[in-house]
Amino acid sequence: MSDPFVVVGGDAAGLSAASKFARENPDGDVVVFEKGRWVSYAYCGTPYYVKGEVEHLTDLLSLSPEDAADRGIDLRREHEVVGVDTDAETVTVEHEGDRFDQPYGDLLVATGAHAVTDPIPGSDREMAFTMHGMDSAAAVRAALSPAGEQWVDTDVEYVDAELVQQYTDRDPPERVAVVGGGYVGVEMAEAFRAHGLETHVFQRSAHLLPPFGDAVCERVADHLREQGVSLHLNTAVSELAGSDGVEAVVHDDGRVPVDLALVGIGIAPNTRLLSDTPVELGESGAVAVDDYGRTSVDGVYAAGDCAEARHAVTGESTWVPLGLTANRAGRAIGQTVAGDLEPVGDVAGTAVVKAFELECGRVGLVHEDAASDAGFDPVSVTIDAGSRSGYYPGGDETTVTLTADRDSGRVLGGSIVGRDRAAIRIDTLATALESDLTVAELERLDLAYAPPFSPVWDPVLVAAKVLRGELD
Amino acid sequence: MSDPFVVVGGDAAGLSAASKFARENPDGDVVVFEKGRWVSYAYCGTPYYVKGEVEHLTDLLSLSPEDAADRGIDLRREHEVVGVDTDAETVTVEHEGDRFDQPYGDLLVATGAHAVTDPIPGSDREMAFTMHGMDSAAAVRAALSPAGEQWVDTDVEYVDAELVQQYTDRDPPERVAVVGGGYVGVEMAEAFRAHGLETHVFQRSAHLLPPFGDAVCERVADHLREQGVSLHLNTAVSELAGSDGVEAVVHDDGRVPVDLALVGIGIAPNTRLLSDTPVELGESGAVAVDDYGRTSVDGVYAAGDCAEARHAVTGESTWVPLGLTANRAGRAIGQTVAGDLEPVGDVAGTAVVKAFELECGRVGLVHEDAASDAGFDPVSVTIDAGSRSGYYPGGDETTVTLTADRDSGRVLGGSIVGRDRAAIRIDTLATALESDLTVAELERLDLAYAPPFSPVWDPVLVAAKVLRGELD
Asked: How many whole angstroms separate alpha carbon B32 and alpha carbon A72?
């Protein structure tokens, strides 16, 4: 009997791979080692759990351990893989103090990423949190609950009941700090404001959501201020100060008293497991893979937030840790390991985020600088256009940035922001970009028009029209 | 001095062409002859005017005669072109009983289409209407107003005040019939129900909105019934009976008493003007044109609802009279006539429609029959998928039909229906289809994911995944 397909990490990439493998190859064995108790949870949903729009933490689970067993997956939770020997083709696993070696036929490293807090002293205080993982989400929600009120259901076996109780017993905060103005920062600002808290967002650079480009950033900043958020831009946080918990955010020009701090300044790939192996990392520090998710070592794959992927525009290897990428790559690798070669697919850097009532999207190379760095001669325009026919109620001004290469006319990237069906429109650009369309081809697309949904010229077409004028 | 660019018809295609020409060639002359009083109005908005969501008829105007003059367009309303002599290169124009010949350098025929009522006797009665044109919209809205209440503003010079007064003075209907279950029929059913009227929709075939495919049709039918609409499917109307106005819809199996009937059974291109010319029509009966909107006669162009266009999937000439097509073709022809050759662009048959709370979209070849007729070997699937992450509130089941060619795997068409951001998602398919993507390529697109807007696998990706399983 051959050795099993071993998967390290029981989240999106890992369980997608295991599920697909088990379905394609019902006679094969697949073992998933997950170091924690939670598996297959929707990380992107955690801000909405803290906000209160999602009632139970377990609502965020997409696959229960029982479901996994039904699919023929040997899922071992609280099993941490602590070593990989690519010569012997074994992994070393720790479980409840014991340690054993598990041989593998093929190996998928799907170890994910972790939240970075490094440059900020005090991030380990009580009432200082990151938002990476279900335990964090439970802790933050417990911290917001009035003392003694049980907002987090600790009956569920996955929940770290001790951590939850610790925060349930504390008085709730009145003033909170969000350190970092990326996705998590913007989503958590919305969550905190929904609880009526005085909310401060600190961002080192001049812009929130930097990958979305200036036009989106500016509308989001204005909107957050309208929603009562205090923005501290161009402000580097030097410390989370306090004695019993967090009491103030210290920055270059002063200090802001707060009772809770959420640090969302970035994530880094979990690759330590591979440090003593010949598996090569890419420039980003994530695992380098080919079009099929294969690493530099035969029989070893990597997928999800710990792995790189090829960028649809630049053709270069890049690190864009997002949910679809993880699911898709995992699924493809499961199929490949089962014997049917399947590419993991390129990434276009497509991302969307809700900022209170604003919908934001971005794809490809938005900034002219990024496009220049990739060897293009970029031209970029930003336009405003209605989301519906002007006479039809409920529309909103939609701001589109579109960037193209001057020589070839090829669409390189874009962004979009508005209140009315703005985010989902980025899919048009993602499709155009992955199809290597030129601006002229984009301008001539036969897109949807009906007064309740879109004006005759969709905002994306308006941007293409204006950009084409710049290119001619 | 050379002869002017003459445009026949002052709506979307005609005025887009004239505007673009005037901008590109400020020294050139452009004359637009429009037989009516209204110019450049949003036909697609008229149901929402009747419904009451759009307050003034003039809100539907996208370009006033004054705006046209400011753009350097010589716009002549109430000037009907009654003849074309392509040898002499002149058109014959009637205005207030006078008749004159106007020489042209280039000629654009943008005469639009008209509502068909032919097979239904009684369509000329009082309280029987079509919805083609602003005068019809004004009349229907006046007919709905309580006797003596002035819902339609007759101060505006464009309005046919006599017609409006005639219907304002009448008692309003309590029971209305919509004959025809296409776009107009579905939109007008919504408008009538908004006024609390007993509403009957008669459709000759088994399905509403036939071009959208069975899955959309079925959900729309269920939804209309939920909204209190009486559907009469497979029911051919033989007459609108009555003495003073409409009193009943007569069909094969009986009669339904109503006080008003709206006939929306189709439109036909206005091409009579060309009947004595060598300008060739296509199989559809609309004017045949090439990739630049040129007809079979030098210097004569056609665009908008009277002209054909090339289909992006079949490559064949087809007649899809919709708003964007008209605007885009007009604009391209304006540029071409100004000396800068510009293609009018293919049509993908993209269409979206709102049916009460449902959003519907379609593109390309949805029906397997249509795909077979075009020489493909079609495979089609229909799936249901969430519009948002399952745990995030406000989502709706989204139904996607996707059709592809078995041999090549090429995406041929699709449809979509749901309450939450469904319609605009058709643009992803339109872009994919115009880029000749295969189902495998579609499945690997990096589309947007964030819990409030889309699940990890967008419904379009789910459909691609399932269809690919059928193709393998």
From this structure: 71
